[in-house]
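Predict the assembly for these two chains.
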Amino acid sequence: RKEVEQDPGPFNVPEGATVAFNCTYSNSASQSFFWYRQDCRKEPKLLMSVYSSGNEDGRFTAQLNRASQYISLLIRDSKLSDSATYLCVVNRAGRRALTFGSGTRLQVQP
Amino acid sequence: EAEVAQSPRYKITEKSQAVAFWCDPISGHATLYWYRQILGQGPELLVQFQDESVVDDSQLPKDRFSAERLKGVDSTLKIQPAELGDSAMYLCASRVAGDTDTQYFGPGTRLTVL
């Protein structure tokens, strides 16, 4: 079983739609959680950290459920520019290192 | 805005040849990581440095891969000999010292082994 599991997609949605991604992680000792965005053939870039209380950044909302060990990302009012792969990331407990999921691909269509 | 630098951006080589990649982290970032990302997968950690010391190289195929960060600043990752299965994106990332796990990535080196 992978440490971080994501639905690979692709999620094909029209502009303006709301879309949600989930991921699950296996290490209950993980303390830090992130969503990174990766455009085709580019490097991953930090989208947002995920906090226990949930957090929002514009059209993006992240939630963490420690009891169920899953993380979610909600994108409202999807834009064409949101088309990318979204990587769910957790830290390796006890070490300053990150474990990445395989990513969920989003394609926003006009 | 400070960035992680990597070179070359692209490298094509034949199997059994040696290749080397270079990374210069954001100034002041003590922790440096090398990742390998195969198409369709997430980045996988190869090696982690704290200053000039290796913290974790458990996933580094040491029979053919080596990494160094001699002065605790820039770093080199070497593959010798390259194999077909090494074709991937090699990403370098750095993390500022302190209580944060946020990492910043360089643009990567895309390696193709023929």
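Chain A has a mean pLDDT of 93. Chain A touches chain B through 23 residues (CB under 8 Å).
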